[in-house]
């Protein structure tokens, strides 16, 4: 019944990235978590069948799933009210219980806005829940790609604003950045006078 997806970059190696963060996508099964992620990382829109991550038989992994997350995207389906209700009654409580990072950035996402004629949750209700959960709010469509990139961009920009979250990012990547900054320092100017 319940599902979740996660995204994190592998530390070290030859990553061509400045930072590495652990970002979770959580919410009921079928709300489009995997579709949002696949739409974000690829140029194609995919119809995905529900994934098995987060199924009840994986409940024993819950605490390790949340451990060290820098950002959490709480997803509901705007056409299914129960998925919205479960965010405040189930998922938000789980975040509070298991998240080890108190400064973790959260974003509430209403997915499937391309099916507006079937809407069961208003945008105003989403905004009110986001305010209650003290997080950002955005409506998206994995099918049309509307606001998908904006969702991840906003989340990362907010993570970058929190110094402690940056400190908990990839140490291998941070060392690489520091080395690059040292190499890029402009040479000291050598002044000389001729008489």
From TrEMBL:
It is found in: Endomembrane system. PROSITE patterns: RAB (PS51419), RAS (PS51421). One of its GO terms (cellular component) is endomembrane system. It comes from the Eukaryota. It is a lipid-anchor. Keywords: GTP-binding, Nucleotide-binding. InterPro entries: P-loop_NTPase, Rab, Small_GTPase. GO terms for molecular function: GTP binding; GTPase activity. Belongs to the small GTPase superfamily. Rab family. PANTHER family: RAS-RELATED PROTEIN RAB. This is Uncharacterized protein. It comes from Gossypium tomentosum.
